[in-house]
Amino acid sequence: MKNISRANCPIRRATDILTDQWSFLILREFFLEGETRRFKDLQNELGLPPNTLSNRLKHLENAGVLERKLYSSHPPRAEYVLTEMGRRFGPVLEAMIDWGTLYPDRGSTNKSD
Amino acid sequence: MKNISRANCPIRRATDILTDQWSFLILREFFLEGETRRFKDLQNELGLPPNTLSNRLKHLENAGVLERKLYSSHPPRAEYVLTEMGRRFGPVLEAMIDWGTLYPDRGSTNKSD
């Protein structure tokens, strides 16, 4: 493992931004479905309550991972795009896919835990 | 991005196991400090309340990432080791380190969010 400092730990900072499972799954959608997603797309894909989705998107936007752009002004409608910082998160998701794929019976399909 | 199924998504399953920031930081310790850690070591390194640490370790043990081994029977004392599944999580942490290192001012040092 690379030498890292606990005081300004890059893993801790990464997980400050990706605070929970939904944050990972929201980002996943941009890599699976395209780098521009509308609120409704994400809601349909993830089945998240609107308030929860809205909070997570706001957090990811403030963190610099997503950018919010208006695509209609009457009525105002926004879409979200990955920033450069967001696109560079791809390798983390790829590594998670590799790991999760090695253990197909672990996690949400394993209800014994 | 690799083609994955939302129904049995490996990212979702990975984040079912690594449920929160502490899970990532607990695993980090095994890669930074050695593949065997005692409860007290982890407590000192992470500054976590014992109950929280105990719950997270139990979860990671049930998930198959860590194994608990007794190293003393009088009094009973346990240490934790990475399983094969736990060792294979290394590339995810490496990818998070790479990403977090690109953005040293984001996350816990950025209090504007």
List strands and helices in order, with pairings.
The structure is a homodimer of 113-residue chains.
Chain A: H1 10-17, H2 21-33, E1 36-38, H3 39-46, H4 50-63, E2 66-73, E3 76-82, H5 84-87, H6 90-102
Antiparallel strand pairs in A: 1-3, 2-3
Just give the CATH class of chain A.
Answer: Mainly Alpha
The proportion of residues forming helix of chain A, as a percent range, comes to 40-55%
Biggest interface, chains and residue tallies = A-B, 52 and 52 residues
The chain-level structural class of chain A is alpha+beta
Radius of gyration of chain A: 16 Å
Question: Are there runs of chain A of 5+ residues with pLDDT below 50, and where?
Answer: none
Question: Regarding quaternary structure, how should these chains be classified?
Answer: homodimer
Strand content of chain A: 15-25%
Average predicted local confidence, pLDDT of chain A: 91
- Tell me how many strands of chain A there are: 3
Gross morphology of chain A: globular
Largest sheet of chain A: 3 strands, antiparallel
CATH level-3 fold name of chain A: Arc Repressor Mutant, subunit A
Number of helices of chain A: 6
Write a structural description.
Two copies of one chain form a homodimer. Chain A is built from six helices and three strands, in the order H-H-E-H-H-E-E-H-H. With 113 residues, chain A is an alpha+beta fold. Chain A has a single domain, classed as Winged helix-like DNA-binding domain superfamily/Winged helix DNA-binding domain (Arc Repressor Mutant, subunit A, Orthogonal Bundle), CATH 1.10.10.10. In chain A, a hairpin with a 2-residue loop joins strand 2 (66-73) and strand 3. The longest helix of chain A has 14 residues, at 50-63. Chain A is globular. Chain A starts with 9 loop residues before the first helix and ends in an 11-residue tail after the last helix. The mean pLDDT of chain A is 91.
